[in-house]
């Protein structure tokens, strides 16, 4: 099978020729830019320019030779863009490693920390001394909201204002043409399955604008206002979805939405609240995505969400990621038994909270083989570690993890 055939077979609940692997196919399956050069060195690969395509999470672009070495079957749509040296500018990682970041992201040194400003000049994020990620520090709707100004508010929110490739040009007057041309060229250049990052968050977007605590209170105390806000958000998402899939719908295999609904101990909201505020709107967006393109719908959703999964399936979800196996209710065996024939489990292949960072390579290998044994029968499984590989992970463990996926 080609990589694309392999991924789609698994998502159609047929066993492929081997377990498909996702590593850096989206912004929650990537690798810390701090550890990436160490991985290349361990693999005996020549040094290459280190490019950080996601400055917020400090994630590196994985080069083609590493993708080939590990048999990676996925590619992010953004890899078709920012291909010129002029698209990048020099920067330095928190550990002093020299790198490049997208030229449109302009961090400023402010005392002992870095800051990112919005177009209006407001500081919206900081990277404190000793930190590894930029942190959101401004919430546009914290004091008062204006539902007619949501697009403007998004430009003042870290997670929406700091673009990874293809970057801000995709939002310009010729954005759709640029997206379409870049996506077509990327698809023609690879047999890997292409993941288009759309986002389309509802629950998280409320937290980005109101702040977590304020948005929880809005849902609980002012449901009419919460519905009004979410209606506006869905209206914007649907318009963006039309444009996005008109441009790239024929070039992607998976469209990725995002909405973190869980924490370590279970869902962040009740099932009743999910059904009241979010399920109908998820269903509306996911249904429209499938009408506009043949791509599979995947949701990135961290944490323990076992209670919500039947409703997510009913809403039209094809795949869930990252399958946080250490959260309550997310044990691989139970998820596979209960949902393995209805939902692709895209992740859960290796625990990153403890095992990947703190175990020996042999222990990592044994753990991965057991997860694959549980999750792979009958298809419906794409291997990915649980979220991004962090800066403290030994590169030997990364090699052990990837090599164990399809080993005897």
What does this protein look like?
β6 (108-110) and β7 form a beta hairpin. The protein has 15 helices and 17 strands. It is globular, with a radius of gyration of 20 Å. It has a seven-stranded parallel beta sheet. The protein has a four-stranded antiparallel beta sheet with strand order 6-7-8-9, with no helix packed on it. The chain has one domain: TIM Barrel (Alpha-Beta Barrel). The protein is of the alpha/beta class and 408 residues long. Helix content is 38%, strand content 15%. The two termini are 19 Å apart. α2 (36-42) crosses α15 (395-404), α6 crosses α9 and α9 (223-248) packs parallel to α10 (271-292). The model has no long low-confidence stretch (mean pLDDT 97).
Summarize it.
This protein is of the alpha/beta class. The chain is built from 15 helices and 17 strands.
Q: What overall form do the CA principal axes indicate? A: globular
CATH architecture: Alpha-Beta Barrel
* Topology, number of strands: 17
Number of helices: 15
In order across it, which strands form the biggest sheet? 3-10-11-14-15-16-17
Number of domains: 1
InterPro entries: Methanogen_methyltrans, UROD/MetE-like_sf, Uroporphyrinogen_deCOase
Pfam family, one: URO-D
Domain Uroporphyrinogen decarboxylase (URO-D): 191-406
Protein name: Uroporphyrinogen decarboxylase (URO-D) domain-containing protein
């Amino acid at each position: 099978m080609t990589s694309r055939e392999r991924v789609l077979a698994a998502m159609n609940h047929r066993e492929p020729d081997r377990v498909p692997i996702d590593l850096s196919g989206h912004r929650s399956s990537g690798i810390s830019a701090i550890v990436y050069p160490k991985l290349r060195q361990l693999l005996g690969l020549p040094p290459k320019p280190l490019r950080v395509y996601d400055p917020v999470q400090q994630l590196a672009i994985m080069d083609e030779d590493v993708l080939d070495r590990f048999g990676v079957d996925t590619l992010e749509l953004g890899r078709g863009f920012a291909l010129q040296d002029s698209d990048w500018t020099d920067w330095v990682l928190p550990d002093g490693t020299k790198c490049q970041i997208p030229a449109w992201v302009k961090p400023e040194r402010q005392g002992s920390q870095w800051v990112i400003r919005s177009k209006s000049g407001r500081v919206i994020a900081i990277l404190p001394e000793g930190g590894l990620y930029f942190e959101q520090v401004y919430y546009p709707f914290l004091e008062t909201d204006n539902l007619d100004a949501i697009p403007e508010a998004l430009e003042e929110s870290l997670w929406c204002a700091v673009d990874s490739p293809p970057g801000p040009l995709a939002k310009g007057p010729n954005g759709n043409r640029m997206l379409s041309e870049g996506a077509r060229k990327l698809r023609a250049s690879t047999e890997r399955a292409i993941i288009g990052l759309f986002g389309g968050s509802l629950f998280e977007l409320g937290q980005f604008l109101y702040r977590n605590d304020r948005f929880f209170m809005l849902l609980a105390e002012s449901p009419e206002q919460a519905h009004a806000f979410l209606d506006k958000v869905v209206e914007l998402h649907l318009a963006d979805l039309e444009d996005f899939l008109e441009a790239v719908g024929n070039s992607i295999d998976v469209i990725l939405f995002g909405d973190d609904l869980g924490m370590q101990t279970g869902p962040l909201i009740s099932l009743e609240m999910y059904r009241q505020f979010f399920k109908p709107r998820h269903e509306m967006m996911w249904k429209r995505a499938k009408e506009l393109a043949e791509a599979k719908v995947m949701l990135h959703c961290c944490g323990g969400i076992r209670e919500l999964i039947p409703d997510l399936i009913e809403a039209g979800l094809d795949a869930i990621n990252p399958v946080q196996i250490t959260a309550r209710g997310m044990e691989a065996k139970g998820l596979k038994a209960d949902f393995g024939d209805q939902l692709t489990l895209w992740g859960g292949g290796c625990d990153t909270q403890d095992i990947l960072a703190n175990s020996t390579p042999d222990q990592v290998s044994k753990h991965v083989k057991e997860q694959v044994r549980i999750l792979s029968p009958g298809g419906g499984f794409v291997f990915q570690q649980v979220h991004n590989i962090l800066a403290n992970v030994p590169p030997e463990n990364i090699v052990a993890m990837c090599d164990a996926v399809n080993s005897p």
